[in-house]
Design a protein that fits this description.
This protein is α/β, with parallel strands linked by helices. The chain is 31% helix and 17% strand. Bound molecules: flavin-adenine dinucleotide (FAD).
């Protein structure tokens, strides 16, 4: 195939990952002549699901210093924040997610096309429905508005999908007006009356957001929170000195038990020096992908079964202000935590009945007007039912991983087909790459992936030319 002088690159999904990628693609000299398309149906491209402006009380769960779009310019977001009117009285320790969404959109806008024919990135405010392979080796990205984009490279940056139904096979509750399948759906919570009882499934950062938003809206009735481990996310502490990396001690470990033993040794050593557990855990962050990849599948599965819940509580932390608010609501009895798994949900007039089974017991029933599923996104690409994913999966071009975490990819993010071969045209970045790294969700990991993938596409293009 003759290399195209102006390769066409189509990025599907314009949330954080898609935005970071097109910005990085534009910085590659080898791609100066590339035609870049960004497909994102939201009214404003850039913020994606997490940072689309909804409610000011939704805060970022990390400090601004960790949130630059560019790995090589760590102060980029902090400096932008300093220039904003809301920072006149000082930069907030935890900015709102809506503010961060504005930052993403403003940065993206610097590369978006302003007129037909200019060199900017072309944004299509619609959904991609398929991307079949053509006989010339390219892909035809089909959009819901009828457009077809013949592309040399296609990147899936699809983000997070709403949580799957927590119980089955009786799914009648999904049609009940009091069941909220998508905790992030716009206007969802405003349908809840101030005296209506609410039950939340899950106790992670999404549950914290929902709880605080309900309170902000004047909700007064008790809220029951059902979670398997019964813990809220740990709170951030004031920034302290970093704990030195001990990755060299972990590198030879190929079992969860081995890694945990080394980790506990460092926790004890840190405690003896008066150092909190948080910096010890954070010191592992840059090497988490390598630690995860060194485990055979059986060990990865063991981790998911026994430790992933605890990991999530310790790793995905709340801003202190949020953690204090949840603690205060618990003390006054506004929030009750019920440890156990939701086994059954049944419609009962204008209410829902929920059977919760704590470990080793027969279980008990709770009744609520509203049940909100905050159980975490659906990651299993064998179950994701959007037309694009279904068509790629059925064509054998997208392979879900055996642990139900995302898609199978090579080290560059190229999708592995059902024959195990890496696609030369189809790539992904973001949460879909959890099978390779386990942690593939937050800004620091995703901006790194965006930089590396842009460089890889540029290298391939350079080699083809
Ligand atoms: C509520 C929430 C809060 C979070 N808060 C933080 C935080 O404070 N700090 C942090 O580091 N991380 C946070 N995260 C993690 C978050 O996943 C990442 O920071 C990042 O936003 C993920 O970016 P993404 O581009 O992969 O996904 P998204 O931002 O979800 O973007 C994916 C985009 O793809 C589009 N899309 C999907 N399918 C198609 C299709 N077929 N055609 C066209 N477009 C399509 C969607 O419309 C969506 O806008 C949060 C996540 C959530 C859900």
């Amino acid at each position: 195939m003759t290399p195209p002088a102006s390769p066409v690159i189509t990025v599907i999904g314009g949330g954080f990952a898609g935005t970071a990628l097109v910005l990085q693609l534009r910085r590659q000299p080898a791609l100066a002549g590339a035609v870049i398309h960004l497909i994102e149906p939201r009214e404003i491209p850039g913020p994606g699901l997490a940072y689309t402006a909804r409610r000011p009380e939704y805060l970022l769960n990390v400090r601004p210093g960790a949130l630059s779009l560019y790995p090589t310019v760590p102060v980029h977001f902090t400096e932008w924040l300093h220039r904003q009117p809301e920072s006149a009285a000082g930069v907030p320790e935890y900015a709102s997610r809506a503010t961060y969404g504005r930052y993403l959109h403003e940065e993206l806008a610097t590369v978006l096309s302003l007129a037909a024919g200019d060199a900017g990135v072309r944004w299509h405010a619609t959904t991609a429905t398929a991307a079949p392979l053509l006989s010339d080796g390219r892909r035809a990205v089909q959009l819901a508005d009828g457009t077809e984009i013949r592309s040399d490279y296609v990147v899936l940056a699809l983000g997070n999908f709403p949580p799957p139904p927590p119980t089955g096979p009786d799914l009648r509750y999904l049609q009940h007006p009091g069941y909220h399948a998508d905790p992030w759906a716009t206007g969802n919570l405003r349908r809840i009356g101030p005296d209506e009882e609410v039950l939340l499934i899950g106790s992670g950062l999404t549950a914290v957001d929902v709880l605080l938003a309900l309170r902000q809206d004047g909700h007064r009735a008790p809220v029951t929170v059902v979670a398997r481990h019964g813990r809220w996310p740990a709170a951030h502490r004031p920034a302290t000195t970093a704990y030195p990396s001990f990755y060299p001690e972990l590198a030879p470990e190929t079992t969860v038990t081995g890694v945990v033993a080394v980790f506990k040794r460092h926790l004890r050593a840190a405690a003896a020096q008066g150092i909190d557990w948080r910096p010890v855990l954070d010191s592992l962050r840059p090497d988490l992908g390598r630690i995860w990849a060194a485990w055979p599948l059986a060990e990865q599965s063991r981790f998911l079964q026994h430790l992933a819940g605890l990991w999530s509580v310790a790793r995905h932390r709340s801003p202190p202000h949020n953690a204090e608010a949840v603690a205060a609501l618990t003390v006054v009895g506004f929030v009750q935590m019920q440890v156990g798994a939701v086994r059954e949900i049944l419609p009962d007039g204008d209410q829902l009945r929920v059977r919760v089974r704590p470990h080793g017991t027969a279980g008990c029933w709770h009744t609520a007007h509203h049940v909100i599923c905050c159980a975490g996104p659906l990651l299993d690409y064998a179950r994701i039912a959007t037309p694009l994913v279904v068509s790629l999966r059925e064509a054998g071009h997208l392979t879900p991983d055996p642990l139900h975490l995302g898609m199978l990819t090579d080290v560059h993010g190229a999708l592995l087909g059902e024959d195990g071969a890496a696609s030369p045209t189809l790539f992904t970045l973001g949460p879909s790459r959890r099978p390779a790294y386990f942690e593939s969700t937050a800004v620091p990991e995703l901006r790194q992936q965006a930089g590396a993938l842009a460089a890889e596409i540029a290298k391939r293009q350079f080699n083809r030319a």
